[in-house]
Amino acid sequence: WVKGYDDHKIPITAKEAKECVAGYRACQGQGSAQDDTPAMPIPEFSDETFINALVNFIVANDQSLNVVESVFFCQLLLLLCSKLLDKDIPHRTSVRNHIEACWKEYLAQLSGELKHLANALLHIIDQLKIDCKIGWITLDNASNNDMMVEHLSCLLGNRGLSFSDFKHRIWCVLST
């Protein structure tokens, strides 16, 4: 699996796996462990890149939105960029609004990807020639599965097959 990750340039960041990964790479003649920290280019400063970087910092590091209200954090930002003025640093409300907008955009993108998942599932169903034999599909209760099974229902309906995204879905029950 390490080779697969390396081939696709996917960083392995789990601290628990670092030693094993380094050992595997050494056995493969790769020498010392590769740096799994991706190099990120620093974009030119603008209001948009600043708010995006701030949101990425807050979300990726699970920071409180209140960090932008900290005098010390604001001083740090002002120290790092001479073009930045105190009035340019957004307050937590505007940061929250930006995060919410990014989240809605991400959900819209994910919704489209889940439609692709329904297409992929239908392709497998076609390969097995069982589209007329589908009874029920078992999925967990994650809301993202709703979109996939709804789209699958439409795809099967376009073929004249009766499949209800509600009636033909079995929801997993939480185990105790």
Short description:
The chain is mainly α and 176 residues long. The chain has six helices and two strands, in the order αααααβαβ.
Overall pLDDT confidence: 84
Structural class: mainly alpha
Measured between the Cα atoms of the first and last residue, the distance is: 33 Å
Along the chain, the helix and strand elements come as HHHHHEHE
Tell me the β content: under 5%
- The count of helical stretches stands at 6
How many domain regions?
Answer: 3
How does the overall form come out from the CA principal axes?
A: extended
pLDDT < 50 runs, ≥5 residues: none
Helix content: 40-55%
Question: Could you tell me the number of beta strands?
Answer: 2
Rg estimate, integer Å: 24 Å
Characterize the largest beta sheet: strand count, sense, and whether it forms a barrel: 2 strands, parallel
Task: Present the secondary structure layout.
Layout: H1 2-7, H2 18-27, H3 47-60, H4 71-80, H5 92-128, E1 137-139, H6 144-158, E2 169-171
Helix pairs in contact: 5-6
